[in-house]
Structures are given as C-alpha cells and as structure tokens.
Amino acid sequence: MTKGPIKKVVLAYSGGLDTSIILKWLQTTYGCEVVTFTADLGQGAELEPARAKALALGIKPENIFVEDLREEFVRDYVFPMFRANALYEGQYLLGTSIARPLIAKRQIEIAEKVGADAVAHGATGKGNDQVRFELTYYALKPDVKVIAPWREWDFRSREALVAFAEKNQIPIAKDKRGEAPFSTDANLLHTSSEGKVLENPAEEVPDYVYSRTVDPGAAPDEPDYLTVDFEGGDAVALDGKTMSPAALLARLNALGRRHGIGRLDLVENRFVGMKSRGLYETPGGTILLAAHRGIEQITLDRGAAHLKDELMPKYAELIYYGFWFAPEREMLQAAIDLSQKFVSGRARLKLYKGGVGVVGRESKYSLYDPELVTFEEGKVAFDQRDAEGFIRLNALRLRMLVQRRRKLKL
Q1: What is the mean pLDDT of the segment spanning 65-82?
Q2: Stretch 216-230: mean pLDDT, rounded?
Q3: Considering 117, 183, 348, 366, which one is annotated as catalytic?
Q4: What is the H or E stretch that residue 217 is in?
C-alpha cells in the first residue's frame, strides 16, 4: 500500500473496463483528484472515447490528456532498439517492452505539469509491466509515489470487478462481463496476446487469436518486392519514397500483414521469475530487422558486427526488464549508435507467405570487394599464398597442446 496521503494522481488510462474501474477505485479509496493520460502509440483503437469516458467518470476536462506519441515512439524508442537488432531470448522483438518507458516518462512529465504527487498503472502483480513502469517512474522522479491497484485492492475475481463497476455506474460491454478468452496489447510495432486459451503451451494457437497478420497459407501466391533505404542505421524510405518513422513502420505493417509475416509463438522467461506463453505479431518489425541486417552485412566490419551480436542479448534483456533509463542501457546504446555511422544504403527484400528475405543490398560504404572474393583467374587483389602463414600462426597453440600431451604421455 502506498504510504501517506495522495492529493492528485496521474493514471495511465486506456478507457477500457479495467482502467475505468481503477479510476473509480482511486477516487473512492484515496479520495484524491485523478488525472488521466491516454497515449496513442498506434494501437489502432479510437482514443477519443477514452476522453468521453473519463468525463463521464467525473474527471475535469483539464485533467484529461490524450496524446499522439506515434512518431516519438518509433523515432526515439523503436529505431534505437532496432539499431541493435534486439531480440529477447533470441526471438522476441520487444514490442510491449519498448512502449512502457515512453508511457511512463510522459506520465511523469504530466505529473510535474499538473502538480501531482503520485502516478498509477493497471499492470498486474504477476507481469513484467509493473516493473517497467515503476523503474521508469523512479529513474525520472525518485520521490514519486506509485499506486499499483492490482497489488493493493481486495478484488479476487472478475465477478467482483464487474460488481464494483455496476455499483459505480461504469458501463460494461457484454463481452466484458465474463473472463476474456485472452488478453491483448497493441501498438505500432506489434500485437501481443496471452492468457486463457494460450496458457497450455502444448496446444496450437487458435486462428481467432491472430489479428495483425493473415494466415501465411492464405497469403498471395505471388511475392512482393520492396526496397528499404537506411541512413545511419535508421530506415528513411520505402521504394525510394522518404517517410517519417511512424509512417514507414505503418506501411511495413500493411505489407507484412498481407503476407502473414511476423508471427511468433513463444514461451519466455518473465523478469518476475515465471515462464509465460505469448503470441506475438510483429509484421513491420520483422521486415525492418531483416532489412537492417542486410545493410549491416556489407557496411559493418567483422569485429564490430560480431561485438554487436555479443552485446545484443544484454541490451535486449535490459529493455525487457525495464531498464531503458538505466546507465548501462545508455552505455550500450552509445556503442551501438557509433557502429551505425556507415550503416547506410538500400536493401531489397522479398515477401512471400510468411517469410521475408534479403535478395539484394547496396551501399556507397560497402566493404564488399568483388576483386577480393572472385574465383576468376588473373586477379591479384588477394595472394592466396598468404593464407599458409595465416593458418600456421592460428594453428600454433593447437600444435603446442598436442606436443604437451605427447611429451607427458597424457
């Protein structure tokens, strides 16, 4: 339970049933003034109803914030993460993880603006999001008071929540009265689904869970080709057309959706200690990752490329755990960003029935030299006789090990 009196709290508010219940619970439990913040991160839902619902629940107009953060989200969070080719546990593109620090940061900024002494979120006590929200809160405002209703209130069932909503005249849609078959979270980068029908990892994900991609088997029988242009590690154009970060990702999402690209059925290790099964759809991000790696293949030196791949799991883990604003993530980001100085050029990709592959790449900074790799006779760029000394030097320690075994008869 949060200690001390609360006068004003900024709530991360979606306008859905759960956060509407939290809004009313904050009013009745703490007797405080509530400020709502609804972020548009490209989740695809109409957000103005959230404003209307907050008004209906007694929130003053000046205490309702509905903000479009799509460009900031992609430019300042998604793109920096993709410079690292970040994948948690080798597969997850971190769509939910990367959204939380931006929401929490803006909550703190609004709290400062309106003079609030607390912030609140709707994450449960079993999940990762509570950690991501609160680590960001404390990193940006160490003395802030945090209210996490799911860890505080006495509701123990869906029926109890619905009864509270009815008592307080909170509208309840018919499909919200019972337990939802699964829960979802969405933004411009991905859609995630978990819980209920997905809880048995031995069972295949039902078709109706997918919302962001067509079935790859039902995708077009002809592939689509596209080009992605990069400057300094960030995508800037599709098929030669310059686009803003959010517009570019939205277009990649549409192409990925059409071809059933970016589905992932994953059992992952949550930060809080348990394993969970999630269904992720990241169509545009999957294409973007392939394109970025394609340009890095010809522009990054081997040492830099391999070091990046060694750093990536730690970087991805920090984001998954909620340490976006921690110094170690910023240190890794500085190294990653330095590596991207010459990651500029054009990648050509083929999209077909759930798959995306790089079929061409070019850059004025390319380190690929046809004169060095050709098998044609008469080329003198590489003297093959040099390889003998190179191999013998690398084999020296291996030969010494054998000599020791023979000498000592081991």
Answers
A1: 98
A2: 98
A3: 183
A4: none
Say whether both 53 and 171 belong to one domain. Answer: yes
From the list 51, 70, 83, 100, the catalytic residue is 100
Domain that holds residue 236: 184-300+342-362
- 129 is annotated as an active-site residue: yes
**Residues 26-45 pLDDT 10s:** 999 999 999 999 999 999 88
Q: Specify whether the CB–CB gap between 15 and 49 falls below 8 A.
A: yes
Residue 375 has a CB neighbour count (10 Å cut-off) of: 5
132 shares its domain with 66:
yes
Calculate mean pLDDT across residues 226-244.
Answer: 98
Look at residue 146 in the predicted model and tell me its pLDDT.
98
Per-residue pLDDT for 227 more than 90? yes
Residues 6+ apart with CB under 8 A from 140: 104, 105, 108, 325
Among the listed residues 70, 106, 129, 212, the single catalytic one is 129
Domain boundary residue, one of 121, 155, 179: 179
For residue 378, pLDDT over 60 is answered with no
| Total count of residues recorded for the chain | 410
Is 265 in the active site? no
> For the chain, percent helix, then strand, then coil, each to nearest 5?
45, 20, 35
User: Is 395 inside any structural domain?
Assistant: yes
Backbone angles phi, psi at 165, to 5 degrees: -65, -45
Specify the number of domains making up the chain. 3
Q: How confident is the model at residue 381 (pLDDT cuts 50, 70, 90)?
A: low
pLDDT of residue 78: 98
Quick one: 153 and 228 in the same domain?
no
Residues 247 and 39: their CA atoms lie apart, in Å, by: 17
The helix (run of H) or strand (run of E) holding residue 198 is none
The pLDDT-based confidence of 377 (bands split at 50, 70, 90) is low
Q: Is residue 320 part of a domain?
A: no
Residue 179 has a pLDDT of 63
User: What is the C-alpha to C-alpha distance for residues 39 and 291, in angstroms, rounded to an integer?
Assistant: 29
221 is catalytic: no
Whether 100 is a known active-site residue: answer yes
276: domain CATH number is 3.90.1260.10
**What per-residue confidence (pLDDT) applies to 46?**
80
Answer yes or no: do 151 and 251 share one domain. no
Query: 383 and 284, same structural domain?
Result: no
